[in-house]
């Protein structure tokens, strides 16, 4: 799959933008702050329903506008699909597929992309929430239905936390909270599916991660992913990743759903008094982590800057390989946002060789000379929210007053 045409209206610093794209590599060049990352961010949003830079949608809407619109024509084996998404400042976002109304959560079924950016260093060095998000975004692209499961889990979690906080304020004991059992059942049912799907994904990432890391650094540092589960006693959000049994990438990808549910239920029972004291749910996929290891040591704290950068990049490339393997629409669009400036010449060349087989690669750079020659055949210049020196889309992306 590749993006054949992209159109933006009131998105970030673009009042309007029209860009024709082709298979192969395209480099978007411009000084910092001109808007090149905004273009690739919009493609990533269609695939993940989120930005890699901000947590909410408001920053994506141009100042003074009520809504932003992203339109993309996706092409696969001669067939085209028009995807449209309207991000509203007020009210729910709206989506269309070939002009027919669609649910926004269905978009990742059709738009697949993997984006690597400097912010991804936080995958290795940042908080557990960053690593949870990495897994969940990939899961949604593999199975869009899971976005609904995640939304339902978050809703139940908020309700349960509200009940715990209310009980703490009223001084209620655990035995007086019979309604909590109802929320526990729903939390376990939804959370078990998420935990098991994450464990399976970690196992699936093991081989492509090792291959991607070797391709970048030309060495085998034995990169490894190991799940750290709060239902087994760990509390990553409080800095504890030592509790319980961690399910490693080399183990059986998940205990059976029944086993996970049993452990989850038991964890909630054991933690109930502590949860009442703190007014928060202490076990579940919202408090899990993934331990990243190099040569058997935690990458966070032991890996150098270069090793951390290579690990994060290898994780993204491994994600792209999984999507390529499982997708019925071909390769995901691979986006490298300001990556080559951080690499030495040898790693630039090795990365260019590693990604050369993807159907479409989009690269952003402040300086064109940072990009290896094999990737720089097509160049688009970006200046102050305007696309210059780029082909004019023909035919243009169909216009519409709204989505």
UniProtKB/TrEMBL annotation:
GO CC terms: cytoplasm
A Pfam short name: SMC_N
Keywords of this entry: ATP-binding, Cytoplasm, DNA damage, DNA repair, DNA replication, DNA-binding, Nucleotide-binding, SOS response
InterPro entries referenced in this protein's UniProt entry, alphabetically: AAA+_ATPase, DNA-binding_RecF, DNA-binding_RecF_CS, P-loop_NTPase, RecF/RecN/SMC_N, RecF_2
Biased composition (Low complexity): 248-258
PROSITE patterns: RECF_2
Positions of region (Disordered): 231-258
Domain AAA+ ATPase: 22-386
Function: The RecF protein is involved in DNA metabolism; it is required for DNA replication and normal SOS inducibility. RecF binds preferentially to single-stranded, linear DNA. It also seems to bind ATP.
Protein name: DNA replication and repair protein RecF
Species this protein is from: Agromyces tardus
């Amino acid at each position: 799959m590749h993006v054949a045409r992209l159109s933006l209206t009131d998105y970030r610093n673009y009042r309007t933008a029209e860009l024709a794209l082709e298979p192969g590599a395209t480099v978007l060049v411009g000084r910092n702050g001109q808007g090149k990352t905004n273009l690739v961010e919009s493609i990533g949003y269609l695939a993940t329903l989120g930005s890699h830079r901000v947590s909410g949608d408001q920053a994506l809407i141009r100042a003074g506008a009520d809504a932003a619109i992203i339109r993309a024509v996706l092409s696969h084996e001669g067939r085209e699909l028009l995807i449209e998404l309207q991000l509203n400042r007020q009210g729910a976002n709206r989506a269309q597929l070939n002009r027919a109304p669609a649910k926004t959560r269905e978009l990742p079924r059709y738009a697949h992309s993997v984006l690597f950016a400097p912010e991804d260093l936080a995958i290795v060095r940042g908080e557990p929430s960053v690593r949870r998000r990495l897994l969940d975004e990939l899961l949604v692209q593999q199975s869009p239905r899971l976005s609904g499961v995640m939304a339902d889990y978050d809703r139940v979690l908020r309700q349960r936390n509200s009940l715990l906080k209310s009980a703490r304020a009223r001084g209620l004991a655990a035995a007086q909270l019979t309604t909590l059992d109802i929320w526990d059942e729903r939390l376990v049912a939804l959370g078990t599916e998420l935990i098991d799907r994450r464990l399976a994904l970690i196992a699936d990432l093991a081989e492509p991660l090792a291959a991607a890391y070797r391709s970048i650094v030309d060495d085998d540092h034995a990169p490894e992913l190991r799940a750290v589960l709060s239902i087994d006693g760990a509390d990553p959000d409080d800095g504890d990743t030592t509790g319980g049994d961690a399910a490693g990438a080399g183990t059986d990808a998940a205990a059976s759903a029944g086993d996970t549910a049993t452990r989850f239920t038991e964890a909630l029972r054991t933690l109930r008094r502590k949860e009442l004291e703190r007014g928060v749910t202490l076990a579940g996929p919202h408090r899990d982590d993934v331990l990243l290891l190099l040569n058997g040591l935690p990458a966070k704290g032991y890996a150098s800057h270069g090793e951390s950068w290579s690990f994060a990049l290898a994780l993204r490339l491994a994600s792209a390989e999984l999507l390529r393997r499982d997708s019925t629409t071909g390769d995901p669009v691979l986006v490298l946002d300001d990556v080559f400036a951080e690499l030495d010449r040898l790693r630039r060349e090795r990365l260019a060789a590693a990604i050369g087989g993807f159907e479409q690669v989009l690269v952003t750079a402040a300086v064109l000379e940072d990009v290896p020659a094999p990737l720089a055949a097509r160049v688009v210049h970006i200046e102050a929210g305007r696309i210059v020196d780029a082909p004019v889309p023909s035919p243009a992306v169909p216009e519409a007053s709204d989505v």
